[in-house]
Each structure stands twice: as C-alpha cells, then as structure tokens.
Specification:
CATH superfamily: MFS general substrate transporter like domains
Mean pLDDT: 85
Radius of gyration: 20 Å
Number of helices: 17
C-alpha cells in the first residue's frame, strides 16, 4: 500500500522523488510501451487492409489519421480528467477502449467500420495512457523530473521497436484480423494492470499553475502550439509511409516495417541522451534542438538511396523525436507550472492531433496522385523548417 505511516498512525502520501515515484514511472513506461507500440505498428496493417477493402493508401491512411487526431485531440479531456479524477479511472477507460476497439476492428466488414473502431478505440486508449501519465510522472518528481519523464516515455520508443516487427510477423502468420485481436487483448490487459499500480502525485508547494484559458493567451504557449502543429504534419508521415516507400525500392516487407522500429529505438536514445543535455543547457534550448534535428532528417530521406540511408534517416528522426516527446512536458512544467499540467499538456497536444491527422492522408494522396514519394518528402522538409523558425522564437519578447 502506497505512502508511509505517521507517528499518529495516519497514512500520508509518499514524497516526491521517492521509491514510490519510480513505481509510477514503471507503470507509465508499460502503458506507453503497449499503447504506442500498437499504434505505431499500423504500417504493418496498411497494405493488407488496403488490399482487402480495395482502398488506396491515402484512404486507408485515414485510419491512422483518425487515431492520431483522437488521441491528441482527447488529450485535452484526458489531461483534465486525470487532474480531477486521478490516473486509475482514466487508465481503466483506456484499457476498455483499446481492447474493444481492436476486437471490433478484427471483425470489420468495410473500411469505414475499421476507421471508426480502430480510430476511436486505439485513439482513446492512447489518449488515456499518454498525457495523463506524463502529467502524473511530472507531479511525482521535482529534482529529477526531466530524467523521470525521459525514462517513462522510452516506453513509446521501445514499444515501437518491439511491437511493429511483432505486428508484421503476426500479420504474415495469422492475417491482419487475428493480429488485431491478439494485440487488442494483450494491450488491454497491460493497461488494466497499470491502472492498479498508479496513484495521484502528492501536492507540491509553490505558485499555482496557469489555467488552460490563461495559457492560451500566453504568447510562448501559442508559439509552442503552432510549432508543434507544423512539425507533426511531417513527423508522422514516415510512421505510415516509410515502410511502403522501402518496399517500393525493393526492401523485404518485414525489414521495411522494421524501419519504424528503428525510429522507436533511436527515440529511446534521444529521450535519455537529450534529457541529460537538457539538464545542462536548459529544457527550452534542448527542445529547440530537437526541432532542428527532426527537420534536418528529412534531407536524408529526400536524397534517397538504399536501405542504409533509410536507416540513417530513421535514426536521426528518432533521436530528435525522442527528445521532443521527453523534453516538451518539462518545458511546459517549467514555464507554466505543474498543478494543472494534465490540462495544459492535453490542450497543447491538440496541435499534434491536427498535424498528425493532416500529414499521413495528405502524403498518401500525393503519392497516389503523383506516383512518387518525392513531393511528399519535400513537403515534410519544408514544414519542418517552418516549425524550427517558430519554436526558436519561444522565450523571446
């Protein structure tokens, strides 16, 4: 049972930066591992689903787009919910939604049904596992906040690394329908266990955090929002379309999907490495460096080449992406406070929901119309550069 017993026999909450804090980090890691691992394995399902339903890559990519829009868009609600109701109830809802959504997707007879069941089920599951748990971990730490968030969100990268190739193997062995069923039941079970472990962070002294209403009137908060929206239009395109690009140049399907796993593995390094950098340079400067790194990575993809170049692209993108995910909450906590962090992060991440919802389908439509990935990749590079220009103005008058 969490907490310690006082001299009067009353149970009091465990302090921040304690052993209990790291138990919460472990639960957050597991929840992000399974939810994002399932989400980012969608590239393994894109081709088989498009073939069975007779839809193009652009239309089928809308499944991933709705999922991203749902989990980022609902982050504002799940973040506020964890502030009010605590993480256990929120994670329990996520477990139910993830499991039911994937089971229903395995039975879908038409693409539009799969769009709704997968997009809403997985989207709600991720929304309940990500923003709330990042906010809860942030509240459990003070001195080691950046490190703790970095460790927790490595679950995103390692989940992508492990689950994406596993999903591809399951699709080849069982077919895409049964693969969804297996992933749905396993993911729901893991989130349910996490819900039993976590609890609210202790209330920390200090100035009250900004409300979401006040934050949206803040110039730096708006700049962070715009920069994130621009960047994520480009960021999530490789998660959906890089495997198809690789297959098109002769890479085997499992090796092609493994590139998404490389992004995940590199993001794990980025989360930990850039977390250390942030402790020395400041969270904001390290966060800005992540934008520059991700934008520059698209130059490698645009140059083309063999599998080795694609691996290099995935590594550079992943390192920047990992730091982006790990350091962003610390930037928000430092500049706007922690007591309402769930709501602040959730509102900010709606920008990523818009970006991710636009990017993958738009890129798919461009590829279908032009017969080439080059225009889509060039567009990603331009958007990344624009995002850099915006984020570099944060903190300036």
């Amino acid at each position: 049972m969490p907490g310690v017993v006082s001299s009067l026999g009353m149970r009091v909450p465990a302090p921040v930066d304690s052993g209990r804090s790291w138990v919460v980090v472990a639960a957050a890691f597991a929840g992000m591992f399974v939810s994002f691992g399932i989400l980012y394995s969608f590239g393994a399902f894109l081709g088989p689903m498009a073939e069975e339903f007779g839809s193009g890559r652009g239309a089928t990519s809308s499944v991933f787009a709705l999922t991203s829009l749902t989990y980022f868009g609902l982050g504002a609600l799940s973040g506020a919910a964890v502030d009010r109701y605590g993480p256990r109830r929120v994670l329990a809802v996520g477990a139910l939604a993830l499991g039911a959504g994937l089971v229903a997707t395995s039975l879908a007879a038409e693409l539009w049904i799969g769009l709704l069941t997968y997009g809403l089920g997985v989207g709600i599951g991720v929304a309940c596992a990500y923003v709330p748990m990042v906010a809860v971990v942030s509240g459990w730490f003070e001195r080691r906040r950046t490190l703790a968030i970095g460790v927790a969100v490595t679950g995103v990268g390692l989940g992508t690394l492990a689950v994406a190739p596993l999903a591809a193997a399951l699709v080849e062995e069982l077919g895409w329908r049964r693969a969804h069923l297996v992933l749905g039941l396993a993911g729901a079970a893991v989130l349910a266990v996490c819900a039993l472990v976590v609890e609210r962070p202790p209330v920390q002294p200090g100035p009250a955090a900004l409300t979401v209403r006040a934050a949206v009137r803040n110039r730096d908060y708006r700049r962070l929002y715009l920069a994130s929206a621009l960047l994520t239009v480009a960021l999530f395109v490789p998660f959906v379309h890089l495997p198809g690009y690789a297959v098109g140049i002769g890479v085997a399907p499992v090796a092609a999907v493994a590139l998404v796993g490389v992004i995940g593995a590199a993001s794990t390094v980025g989360r930990l490495l850039l977390g250390v950098v942030a402790a020395r340079t400041g969270a904001l400067r390290a966060f800005q460096a992540c934008f520059v790194t991700m934008a520059a990575s698209f130059v490698l993809w645009l140059l083309g080449g063999g599998y080795g170049v694609l691996v290099a692209f995935a590594v550079v993108l992943g390192v920047g992406y990992g730091g982006f995910v790990a350091i962003g909450p610390a930037v928000v906590a430092e500049r706007f406070g922690t007591t309402r962090l769930g709501g602040l992060l959730g509102a900010l991440y709606t920008s990523a929901g818009i970006g991710s919802a636009v990017g993958a389908p738009l890129a798919g439509a461009v590829v279908d119309a032009s017969g080439s990935y080059t225009p889509a990749i060039a567009g990603c590079l331009a958007l990344g550069a624009a995002a850099c220009c915006v984020v570099l103005t944060v903190g300036r008058s």
